[in-house]
Every structure is written in structure tokens, then in C-alpha cells.
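To: structure desk
From: M.T.
Subject: fold request, one chain
Message: Could you run this one when you get a chance? Sequence is below, nothing fancy, just the single chain.
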Amino acid sequence: MKIRFFGGIRQVTGSSYGLETPGLRIFVDCGLFQERPVLDRNWEPFAFAPAEVDALLLTHAHLDHCGRIPRLVAQGFSGPILATEATADLARIILLDSAHIQEEDAEFKRKRHRKEGRRGPHPEIPLYTVDDAKASLPLFETVTYDAPVRLSRGVVAHFRDAGHILGSAMIDLEVREDDGPKRVVFSGDIGSWDKPLMGDPSVIDRADIVVMESTYGDRDHKDPVPVDEMLAEVVRSTAARGGNVVIPVFAMERAQQLLYYLGRLRREVRIPEIPVFLDSPMAVEVTAVFQRHPTYLDEEAKSLIRSGRNPLDFPGLRLIRTPAESKAINTLGKPCLILAGSGMATAGRVKHHLVFNIERPESTVLFVGYQAPQTLGRHILEGAEEVRILGRTVKVRARVARINGFSGHADREDLRRWLRAFRHKPKTVFLTHGEEAATLAFADGLRREGWNVVVPRPGEEAEF
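Reply: Done. C-alpha cells follow.
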């Protein structure tokens, strides 16, 4: 048996691993590289011919885990893509949107290069097209949590609830070899305990080999006061000043978490009755997927549904789809709350709302998710006095706030909690999916506790 580390290694995007046994070759995830220094890796050939891959097991539908699937299919992969039903529904939205962006970016690059009289390092074609994305969708085959999925005569997979986003899974593999069975676990992205909407992450009590994420391996992100109290304070104080609250959101999961909390705060009369706009067509579409798959939600959300309430809807919420509706928000003339993409303020409608609000001391820009280095969100969060948005340099006069507790990733203590569920320490724990400093810090801490930890490098393989 051999495990190969293709992506998400000493970085947080591009997650992709390979497992080979006699007669079987599979991928676990096939994610897009999104950090600026490694974008070129999206164009590199796959480590082996896609046509030789028997199956792709998808942990969840975030772009950094599924975003290169259309390219894999376009280059010859024709096996099944195994995922939960919710993941398959979300992946359709994400992949079609990503393909549309790829086409737009390629066209923009062509125009810019013609104007500048030069060529870039890559052909002026999209990484993949909308047609490529559509061609990958029929390959999806849905699985159920905890049900055995036979991949070959000697390999059986179980998808366990990861508690990260709707339909997210850990891949628990039993591999039978000449010297006996081995358990190999790919954690995917591990969620946190006691979060709204999602159930708690599954714990697994036995494994020989673990490939584990380490996104927050160097920190704990519990807030000093409950998340709902912090959110309520931001909304109340901003409305009292006559300003708007602008929240850059990720369309998948974070937007729905916020709707859940805002609905609860509104029902409990803890925030004023100001309009709330979900200004992201993708987030609106993802919210509909949540409503189609209530069985994936936690017990509190299910209880609301049984009582006849929609946990993601409340009076005053408006779902914004068209550009004209989006532009009209900034002519409202009274306090409101705006949830708009993208989550790191790198693109999308949130940039227009920031231009309108960031120079207003009465408004608040609230961050509720990770802000990668060199993004607009990171610059604002780190205290930049002025930033450049949509070709304009604007001064940051609005209040800038942050709530850490919305993260869909387990923090350092939760990662340890997940590991402690193993009755015996696995022979090897491979740490992946984290910025290098965070991964190495987590590895050092685990080694001091007696774990055998390896932090692989891109392209490395481990044979057992």
C-alpha cells in the first residue's frame, strides 16, 4: 500500500492525496490551489494519468477540495466520484461557478495581453470550461454516512460525518493486504463541536494510518464571549450609530451560519428590526441546498423545522439575486446588514459595499472567517489606514471587527480531542492542509505527547 501527497501539503489549498494498493488506485479529493504563490500548480500535469485512476473519493464541496475535478475529467478520468448527496449537490454549484470564473479570467487575460502586447506563462485559455464542469457531474455517485462502499476486493470505504460543512465526510478505509487488514483514515476538514446547523464531527477509535488536517494546529479560536452576544453587539451598536454592517461571507456554510444566528437573535428580540440582505446568488442557491437536505442538520435545527420554522429565514431577510437589486441596497438610506461574497473580499459584490461603507465611521466591517495573507480582507483586518478597492484608494474609517467562533474548522484543542478518541495511537499521523508554520507547531506538540507524526512535502509518498 502506498499513499501519495499531491496537494494541500504545507499549505491550505489544493488538497489531493492518492492511495494505491494492488489492483486499485484512488484519489481522495482533487482541490484547486488558491494561494497566489502556488497558482501555477493548477496547470501542472497530474501525478499519473487520470485515466488510470479507478475512483475519486470527495470529502466535501469546498473549492480547495473539489476545484480541479473538471480538469481531471477533461484529461481522461472516467471513474466514479463518490460523495454524500449533499456534497454532490453543493459541488455542482461550486464547479459550475468556478468554471464560469475560469472562462471570465481567461477572456480578461486575453484582452489585457493584447493591449500590453505580451503573453503570460500560461495559455490564454481557461483551466477548464463550463462544458468541462458539466461533463464531470454525471460521474458523481452518492453514498450514505457509515454505509460500507466496496472499492475493490480488498478495500472498503466508510464515509463518516466530519461536522465541517453540509455533507462533509472523513474517509475511513479498511485495506486488506497479505499481512492482514489496515485502517487508513483521511480526516478531510474536521469541524468543531457544538456548532449550529452541523452535527459534531465523528470520532474514530482505531486506525493504523491517519492523514489529518492541521489548519488551526497552532491556535485556539474560542471567543471570550459567546458568538451570538458578539454578533448582537455589533448589529446593535452599528444601527444605533446609523451605519451599515458589511460582512464578507463565504457562500457555503458561513452565510448559512450567520442566517441561523441572525434568525435566532431576531426571534429573541436581541437585535433591532433592520433589513438583512444576503447579496450573493451562490449563497442563495447554497441555502436552498440546505433546505433540501434537513437530515444533515443538527438536532436543534431539525427541531425548528419540526415546529414549522425555517432555521434559515426570518422577517426582514431579503435574498438578492440581480445586480440591480444589489446596487439598490446602497441607496436605502437607513441602517441595514449586508452579507455579501467573497469571504476574503477578493472579488464579488462585497467590494462595492465596502467602497460605499468603509469610509463611514458609523458603519462596521465585520470579518467572520479566515483571511489569507495578501488579501483585501487581511489588509483591512490588520489595520491598514487605506486600501485599494475597485481601482480606488479609500481610507478605512469604518469600525473593523472580527468574530473567530464562526470557523468551520476545528481549532488546536478540538484537533487534539479528535485524536484522543483513538484507543491506541496510530502508527503514523501525517499532517496536511495547514500553513507550514501551523502544521509544524501542531506536529511538535503532538510529538511531545508521544505521537509518531510526519509532515510530508509535496509529491512525497509513503509505502507501507
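Reply (cont.): The chain has a mean pLDDT of 93. Let me know if you need anything else for the meeting.
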